[in-house]
Design brief:
The chain is an alpha/beta fold. It has 19 helices and seven strands. A five-stranded mixed β-sheet has the order 5-4-3-6-7, sandwiched between helices. Strands 1-2 form a two-stranded antiparallel sheet.
């Protein structure tokens, strides 16, 4: 026995090397997913837990974009009967000082058998000796705690074929012939905008899960939850459904999107200080004129018309946004200027030209949605004196006056038509027609009359102060 390795003298079988320890422990991964749940990107969350950005991206992708159940907030904390990483660090330090097993157990308040079993089971054996290191021991313990369970879709072939057929089965014509649809290669990510999609039966996972109860009322083995179908699609290594079948989901996403990330979605040039919640109260109650709402109405061939509506008087001003030189005359330059005429610079210049024709008293604020055409809002505020505010994402009702006016404008500029065919004189004529139309909300006065009264009131106030 004296000439044998210490691991052999321990009278246990040789261990197959489990490979290289992971770069982070379970608590690091748990904190990573907590940061992702708060809205951080996988790269930023990885940096917060002190791992590399590629590692964080790999964790996110392998889990399908959602935290595994044992790492989520709802999972139970580790029981106190298990050794913690801090205790394993203490054990490693005391073993290096040749402290005995019973003394270590007494200092930690643990049973001697617990310490003896820990030193034997979770030792580092790659060097041939039973060396004890805290990080390696923690890694061994986390691996041993896993309880892998085969998913039902992998073991039940009939159930798997049912799910695959309803999810990605061929579309069938009324005559019974299969219609393949366009050929769409799988690129491992979500489809691009305005591109062909793979055709399939495209039942949602919830529809599949609920329909199983009707088609197999007496067979309890033909049951599965919609969440299990989603995990089989999104989580790598489940071995049940191929990830390319995500093309047949309604969203077509290749990865799930955490809910907090969608809530925080918005343009980078929009900060919390200029959101609509910070707009002064006088703009909300319409008591003081000079607060405007703006938007673009879009037409064929990337044509657009800008709209400005004053909240108190409903007075409308239209922005002429003609296409710039070079639009559709050659190949588009990648990351080049917006030649369609409604880029950030063009919209800023059009608003400046139009709004500066009004007195300063009627230029208080402008509320817009979070479109890229308002990326130069800082320069616009300097040039015009308008305080610019932005609505919350996907909240058009926060610009209700402007949305109502855009609906009226569609009588003159229907959807699907080329708005670039209308010149500045045409827009001025349409604006004059709207501004001379009586409005119930104004006591059947016209917006032009209401604005004229506001101008006279503003001039009277100036005269009294002077």
């Amino acid at each position: 026995m004296a000439g044998r390795r210490r691991s052999d003298r321990a009278l246990r079988d040789k261990l197959r090397s489990p490979g290289r320890p992971s770069v982070a422990r379970q608590e690091h991964r748990r904190r990573f997913w907590a940061l992702v749940a708060e809205g951080l990107s996988s790269e930023d969350a990885a940096m917060e837990v002190e791992v590399s950005q590629p590692v964080g991206f790999r964790w996110f992708r392998e889990a399908g974009g959602m935290a595994p159940s044992h790492l989520s907030h709802s999972s139970k904390p580790l029981s106190g009967r298990y050794l913690t990483f801090a205790e394993r660090e203490e054990i490693a330090l005391w073993r290096a000082q040749d402290v005995g097993v019973r003394e270590i157990a007494r200092r930690l308040g643990r049973a001697p058998s617990t310490i003896s079993r820990e030193l034997r089971r979770n030792a580092a054996t790659r060097g041939g000796n039973l060396d004890y290191r805290a990080t390696t021991a923690q890694w061994h313990a986390e691996r041993a705690a896993r309880r892998p369970k085969a998913v039902r879709l992998a073991t039940n072939l009939e159930l798997r074929s049912y799910v695959q057929n309803r999810l990605a089965g061929a579309v069938v014509a009324p005559g019974g012939a299969a219609v393949p649809g366009p050929a769409v290669p799988w690129k491992g990510r979500r489809r691009g905008r305005r591109q062909d999609r793979r055709w399939g039966m495209a039942w949602s996972p919830q529809q599949i899960a609920e329909r199983l109860r009707l088609d197999y009322p007496d067979d309890t083995t033909m049951r599965i939850s919609h969440e299990a179908i989603y995990q089989a699609l999104y989580v790598q290594g489940r071995g049940a459904l191929k990830r390319e079948l995500t093309q047949c989901l309604r969203t077509g996403r290749a990865l799930r999107v955490p809910r907090s990330r969608t809530r925080g979605r918005g343009k980078s040039f929009v900060t919390r200080e200029i959101l609509i919640s910070e707009r002064p109260a006088e703009a909300e109650d319409r008591a003081v004129p000079g607060h405007w709402e703006g938007d673009l109405i879009l037409g064929l061939d990337s044509s657009a018309i800008g709209t400005l509506v004053e909240r108190t008087t409903r007075f409308t001003m239209l922005l002429h946004l003609p296409p710039m030189e070079g639009h559709r005359t050659g190949p588009r330059e990648k990351n080049g200027p917006a030649l369609a005429g409604h880029g950030a610079a063009a919209v800023r210049d059009a608003i400046t030209r139009t709004i500066t024709t009004l007195p300063e008293a009627l230029r208080r604020s402008l509320t817009w949605d979070q479109g890229a055409e308002m990326a130069q809002h800082t320069r616009l505020r300097i040039d015009t004196g308008l305080e610019v505010y932005f609505c919350d994402p996907q909240s058009p009702w926060q610009r209700g006056t402007n949305e109502n006016t855009n609906g009226l404008l569609r009588q003159y500029f229907p959807k699907g038509t080329d708005l670039g065919a209308h010149g500045a004189d045409d827009l001025a004529a349409v604006a004059a027609a709207l501004n001379s139309r009586p409005r119930k909300t104004l006591g059947w006065r016209t917006p032009a009359e209401a604005l004229d009264a506001a101008l006279q009131s503003a001039q009277g106030d100036v005269a009294m102060t002077s």
